[in-house]
Write a structure and sequence with these properties.
By secondary structure, the protein is an alpha/beta fold. It has one domain: NAD(P)-binding Rossmann-like Domain (Rossmann fold), CATH 3.40.50. Helix content is 44%, strand content 15%. The protein is built from eight helices and seven strands. A seven-stranded parallel beta sheet has the order 3-2-1-4-5-6-7, sandwiched between helices. The radius of gyration is 18 Å and the shape is globular. The chain starts with 15 loop residues before the first strand and ends in an 8-residue tail after the last strand. The mean pLDDT is 95.
């Protein structure tokens, strides 16, 4: 057995994690966990006040950049800048997303393309920008934030479900291509997590929350940190033989009856 001792095997010391949508919610929880595990963290997103507050709260080894990931052509310049200022990106967490709640029959091609633009094209552009460096160094981890909508049918979210399902195909193909270079690509599929966004949604629809909890074997919502620590694990040496995986963090809902 040739491995790091506990707890070093879960450490991210020396890593530089780039987290999209990192100013709030699950993205912030991932940032907090990776920072606690020793990583340098860079947050990107479109809203500077949230990013600045998140960086201030986290403290040292944290920076942020206001950036719209749907500006696909800007990804290489962003990664070059971050590499110059903070060192090469070794962990990329594609967390930024966009939602649309609408019946499939009413969803327009433009709306579908808009949602796919963030989840698929934007995430791919950033991945494409960081991967040459990861391949050169023979070291890297890319995580995509999937969803329960990747795993089973949820009504009124056809654009979101299409994007998150496409994501699963992407990570499996990329994992196959990149494995010879010691670059791992995985996904996390959160269940229903107790975030400000979910609390806002449930406030106007208490029956929905009760229905979700009744279908969750653990009978509660998850905490954002549950997703954050899963991301730490997948990026750490402890997961060095894991790639192409989709890890549900869902209290059992994806396998419950």
């Amino acid at each position: 057995m040739n491995s790091l001792p506990f707890p070093d095997v879960f450490s991210l010391r020396g890593e530089h994690a780039l987290i999209t949508g990192g100013g709030t919610g699950i993205g912030l929880a991932v940032a907090q966990a990776m920072h606690a595990a020793g990583a340098r963290v860079t947050l990107i997103g479109r809203r500077e006040p949230e990013l600045a507050e998140a960086a201030r709260t986290l403290g040292d080894r944290v920076s942020y950049v206001v950036h719209d990931i749907t500006k696909f052509d800007a990804a290489p310049a962003l990664i070059a800048r971050l590499t110059r200022e903070h060192g090469p990106v070794t962990c990329l967490v594609n967390n930024a997303g966009k939602h649309l709640k609408k019946p499939a029959i009413e969803t327009t091609p433009a709306e579908l393309q808009d949602v796919m633009g963030t989840h698929i094209f934007g995430a791919h552009a950033l991945s494409q920008a960081v991967l040459p460096g990861m391949i050169e160094r023979q070291h890297g981890s890319v995580i995509y934030m999937a969803s329960m909508a990747s795993l089973f049918g949820i009504p009124l979210v056809v654009a979101y479900a299409a994007a998150k399902s496409a994501m699963i195909g992407m990570i499996r193909t990329m994992a196959t291509e990149l494995s010879p270079h010691n670059v791992r690509v995985n996904a996390i599929a959160p269940g229903w997590i107790d975030t400000a966004m979910s609390r806002k949604a449930f406030a106007g629809d208490p029956n929905r929350k009760n229905k979700i909890i009744s279908r969750t074997p653990m009978a509660r919502l998850g905490d954002p940190e549950d997703v954050g620590w899963a991301a730490v694990y997948l990026s750490s040496p402890a997961a060095k033989f894991i790639t192409g995986a989709v890890m549900p963090v869902d209290g059992g809902v994806s396998m419950g009856f």
